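Review this chain:
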Amino acid sequence: MTDHIVSGSSTTGTLLFPNDTQEVYSGGLTLSTTILSGGTETVSAGGTASRTNVSGGIEIVSSGGAASGTIVSSGSETVSNGGLTVSTLILSGGSEVVSSGGTANATTVSNGGAEYVYSSGTAVGAGILAGGAIYLSGGTASNVNVGVSATEYVSAGGVDVSATIQSGGVQYVYASGTASGTIVAGGGNEILTGGTASATTLQTNGTQTISSGVAVGTVIGSKAVENILAGATASSATILSGGVENVSSGATAVGAVISAGGVERVLNGGTAISATVLSGGTEYIA
């Protein structure tokens, strides 16, 4: 079956079985379509799909089409070429793929679900719940909230701006990936493995671990820790009262500012260059 939804027409509660197709064109509207495994809904320029339930099938949103309130319980939602999704919910076994020219706003990814943002794709305001994950590979994400036991992966070409990493959440930044303005809450962790992080804020009990790559301008708050491991570099960190920067053997810290009550600890074989130690600040060199 092929179902064409054209300008001025709408349909409610359509059930798409294997090999069924629903095409939503400019001015067309679908409500509460269910897409089973092997079924496909395509939303093109000017078309709108609302409250679609993807249960093993595929929803494709492209060329200026829009979808809102989609629930992906298994199968996938694909957004590209000027397509827009709003308030998608990804459940266990489901995925959302945002590729060239596509935009996903306010996606929620729950346990076992995943959001993939590829080259020139954009994700805004995603909420990643426990057990969920978001993957940036050439795409851009902003204002992502990474919750307890949730994960964000920023790999080559991926750019993340202003993420918040909650307690138990982790942000990984791999080679050629970039994260800026990340806020790491207590119990959260930002881990650099060849990537670059700038202007990270470590709140109370937050952690940044640089195993390789570069961190620039990290602000280390009370009881927060920045760990710089062998081969990694951190520059222009600000260490506030109660904060600690650990510089391991083979690691380098450049231009740290150590405020009253802050500590820079340089272990044997570590290097600290041009640190500024303010009154009440401490620099330990083993």
